[in-house]
Amino acid sequence: MAQLNHKDIGELHLDVQSATLCSWESHGGYHRLRNDQVSGFSITDAAEQDCPTSWRVADVQGGTDPAAPCSVTLESTGDRTAKMTLSLFPFARMELEVSEGLPLQVSATLSLATGTASSRPDSEGPVRIAGLTGQQFMDMSEPDPEMVADDANQLNCRPGTTREYHWEPRGTKKQDLTLNLDDGPDTMLVRAHCSLPKLVLDCASDSNRWPEWVRLTFATSEPVNTTEPWTSYLEFKSRY
Fold it and tell me: How many CB atoms lie within 10 A of CB 63?
């Protein structure tokens, strides 16, 4: 287990064998991840079969000064040559690089606990996401979902909300998608690289008025097949 801490981001625990996040306690002292769901990168082959990958620590930077940047880099130990780096400052950033073992499919998941799931006195919703206006999506709760453009300024997340977005960067110079998730008492920023242009958004269905968790899964839209090293990232930060 690797533990990273920064005064503006909080404390994160990383399982170094699976390269997945175990917990994230924000700098305000709030638990931001849903512990019973996996957060991190996942690699499958072109047939979408899981590719079990073992990891080991390759490098550690910083970690003694809570005001300074810090990072841990993991490298794969199997046939696939890959590196995953978790760094803190100015955001928490998970970056994956794969140089051998293509073609493959990659996804990056962040399962976020909302204020409704906490004991904070001001924790009662609403749960809203901004940043998806104009992007194409399907409402997966419909019996025959169709691709349409999201014309709302923000998405009000309700229990059971499930959507699949196929997004594009805004402008030729943008290389990512930035979302602002407002859960009532807090706002979380999530940023994904354009190499992960599919987003599956689903919310807890067993909640009351507002979902207790929101899961964001960014993924490749087709198998990655290139002779060059392939990289992607997911960044996130909490206001409190």
Answer: 17
